[in-house]
Amino acid sequence: MSELYSKAQTILLRKKYIGPSCKVFFAKDPLKIIRAQGQYMFDENGEQYLDCINNVAHVGHSHPEVIKAAVKQMELLNTNSRFLHDSIVDYAKRLSETLPEKLSVCYFTNSGSEANDLALRLARQYRDHQDVITLDHAYHGHVSSLIEISPYKFRKGKDDKKEFVHIAPSPDIYRGKYREDHPDPAGAYADEVKKIIEEAQKRGRKIAAFIAESMQSCGGQVIPPAGYFQKVAEYVHKAGAVFIADEVQVGFGRIGEHFWSFQMHGEDFVPDIVTMGKPMGNGHPLSCVVTTQEIAEAFSASGMEYFNTYGGNPVSCAVGLAVLDVIEKEDLQGNATRVGNYLIELLNKQKAKHPLIGDIRGIGLFIGIDLVKDQQKRTPATAEAQHIIYKMKEQRILISADGPHRNVLKLKPPMCFTKENAKFMVEQLDKILTVLEEATGTKTERLNEAGSDSVSDSTIQVGENINKKRNGLYAEKHTIPGKRIRT
What we know:
Layout: H1 7-17, E1 33-37, E2 40-43, E3 48-51, H2 64-76, H3 86-97, E4 105-109, H4 112-127, E5 131-135, H5 144-147, H6 151-154, E6 165-168, H7 185-202, E7 207-213, H8 228-238, E8 242-246, E9 273-276, E10 287-291, H9 293-300, H10 314-329, H11 332-353, E11 357-363, E12 366-374, E13 379-380, H12 382-394, E14 397-398, E15 400-402, E16 408-411, H13 419-440
Parallel strand pairs: 3-14, 5-6, 5-7, 7-8, 8-9
Antiparallel strand pairs: 1-2, 2-3, 4-10, 9-10, 11-12, 12-13, 12-16, 15-16
């Protein structure tokens, strides 16, 4: 495929015409990607990169079945969603069959942000309550209503927390308030939500919703402890509020054993509203809110019509149906389990070998590598994480980091990721960690903890052997296994 502009010209044109707050991966040396296939992306020079972060291309980049479905429908009809067409009801039926029985009413939208915004409207209309409980470090979307409930974003700006927003601690049993050695971390974290509800009610406020990603992505690949969501739902329902499960990043079989991540909590937990997006259209803008008949009727009773010009249009629904077909035909859920288990096994071997790895957590193809400068103190290794990302890029592997300290390497590859891909990725990570640890030695804890855009390759000179001899600071410390959900 020929380029319209050289890479240098593209960068200059972005600076002129694209908003400066629109960031790109690898800011110091951004990649120019001109095509992608499966789990691979290709730059303007034809170099192949292993994509470990694109959870949008859920069934693989440029999947032929998805493309064929889109083209076939576009040749026939695409129109305003007010007209009757069969694909919207066919798709809604297929989606509802993957969910618990009571979740049966669909509202189609175009992005995860739109879906979460609509979920808030549904929740607030249901009981005519206003307040929202969100998790610390959460991110739910870029529209104003969601920035207000996304500490991951609003704490970076000048906006103060709104009075109707209440922040519960992230249920992180590795570096959170209650850790893996606590006798009941699920109960302790849920009690924090209960306290928030009680304090809000004392001030005359009414809770409309508790919203959480089924597994926190931007928060650092956090997997809630078993039983947490059940207890939170009990407190939330008692307050007359609803539980919103945000599956925008983690749904559609990513965890392998279940189609939806909230299902790993057991059949006795069912959210009142589920939102979905990103992987839903494999790159096509498609998202959805699914809720109960009771909540849908309360929303309709307001007298305000819900209308979305493109939400649920024929082409979007055809694409969505094709994605569901591919997940089933190619057994991508099974692949997520097999490859995910293998990858976690390989990474745990690296954890035993490398003092920089503090924790490996994950289910299926949703995995986090928490990097630390001190095993006992669990000091976040932020600069090291950013350094590793760039070094992996040099090896043609694309990963990213997130979490409150941007020290958690996150892996959310397309679902067609293979064991060979996993082995190659871990081998390269092993080499980079080995060189980094030998180069920094006991000096690791003094590295600059700047953000990814400010960390230069000169921050850590891996070619210079500062101190090859390790000491007791890096002895592996084995912790008590956490009460994480096992699938």
